Amino acid sequence: MTHESTPPPNLDPTPGQSPSTSGPERTPDGHHIIVNGRKWRASDPSIPEKLRAELVAELMAARRLVRTDPEHARPRVQDAKVALGERGEAWWEHTDQGRSQRIVATIKALLRHRDGATICPSDAAKVVGGTDWRELMDRTRNVAACLHRDGVVEMRQRGTRVDPTHAHGPLRIALGPELGP
Fold first, then answer.
1. Nearest to 177 by CA among 113, 128, 119, 111
2. Burial class (CB in 10 A: 0-12, 13-18, 19+), 97
């Protein structure tokens, strides 16, 4: 039986450790973990550890809210799981649409986790692209520009809100009025 999400992601082995030395059993291809005889999709192992830890912390915070505020908690859980590669398009099968959806989820999850602090577009690109993150920078900026247009995020330069279609140079992404809790 295959499931599109995993039990708490801390069951995955620590990056750099083999499944035989830590964590649950993995399928031979490493795409799934086996827990109590059930197959669950594993987190994307190419996510840098610092960003993975932030996404896992956001997932755990969202899960704690499910009982008290399910309306706001469930989209947060979904975004964190998509960002981690546990839901949505399989992280080992890349399509433009799937990568864009994962970038959206990553931006939302990191902004919620950082609670008012901005993120760099490269953070989302690193989560989705791993070591090839630079190849995703144009796509990440374009996705962020669409979210900016929709009010989900604000694009900033030197702390000031800017139109990303006309801005040049480094940009930061901040929470927008439509992102919600």
1. 111
2. exposed
Question: What mean pLDDT do residues 51-70 have?
Answer: 96
Q: Phi, psi (5° rounding) for residue 117? A: -80, 155
Percentage of the chain exceeding pLDDT 90 = 78
Q: Vertex 118, ends 55 and 136: CA angle to 5°?
A: 65
pLDDT-based confidence at residue 162 (cuts at 50, 70, 90): very high
Contact 14, 24 (CB under 8 A): no
Contact between 102 and 139 under an 8 Å Cβ cutoff? The reply is no
Three-state DSSP at 79 gives helix
The one-letter code for the residue type at 30 is G
Q: How far is CA 102 from CA 12, 60, 167, 168, in A?
A: 20, 19, 24, 25
Cα separation of 104 and 11, whole Å?
A: 25
Which residue intervals of 12-69 are DSSP H helices? 49-65
How many C-beta atoms lie closer than 10 Å to residue 164's C-beta?
22
Neighbours of 168 (CB within 10 A): 7
Please report how the helices 137-149 and 96-114 are oriented relative to each other, as an axis angle in degrees rounded to 10: 70
The 10 Å Cβ neighbour count of residue 50 is: 9
